[in-house]
Amino acid sequence: PETPQRIEVYDNSHISGTKAVGGMVVAGPDGFMKSQYRKFNIKSEIADGDDYAMMREVLTRRFSRLLKDSDPRPDVTETDDPTAPSPDWPDLILIDGGAGQLKVAVDVLAELGIDSVVPVGIAKGPERDAGRERFFMQGRDPFMMEPRNPVLYYLQRLRDEVHRFAIGSHR
Predict the structure, then answer these.
(1) How large is the average pLDDT for residues 142-162?
(2) Which is it for strands 92-96 and 7-15: parallel, antiparallel or unpaired?
(3) In the structure, what pLDDT confidence band is assigned to residue 168 with cuts at 50, 70 and 90?
């Protein structure tokens, strides 16, 4: 409902099902916040290329840590709203993938009791055609944005950056 101040974008990468990693990039009002980027080495025994299980592990680790580190909230004073998210909490998370990846994100957030973060899945278009991405949100039908829409370009740039970061982790 409001302009996000912190967006976290997640993607997974692996080499033929091995050496799986998850990547998280962060963007704010002033652009990419590279000091906030995180790489997650997948620790669980996951079937080769199980993107859903990898995403579940990454999101569970990330948001469990946020809950642990922000409880109690040291940045809250008596005049502040204690239910307001801290600066390290995203307003929006973009998940590289479609309905399945979105469901994983929704499930993880629900299991952890987090309802202040909006998850959105972004899936490449047919034949991986940039500009024909489909977006997935809980309670809405999948939708596309008009080509040449500046918001679409911005979201593509976010997705491309998390791809670059996750794949670069293998190097």
Answers:
(1) 93
(2) parallel
(3) confident
Length of the chain: 171
Rounded mean pLDDT of 26-52? 89
- Cβ atoms of 143 and 120 closer than 8 Å: no
Instruction: Provide the β-strand partners of residue 143.
Output: 135
Which amino acid belongs to residue 55?
M
C-alpha 108/C-alpha 129 separation (Å) is 29
Which residues have a Cβ under 8 Å from the Cβ of 136 and sit 6 or more positions away? 98, 99, 102, 120, 121, 122, 123, 142
| CA atoms within a 13 Å half-sphere pointing along the CA-CB vector of 161 | 20
CA atoms within 13 A on the CB side of 12: 24
pTM of the entire predicted model? 0.86
Whole-number Å distance between alpha carbons of 166 and 142 = 26
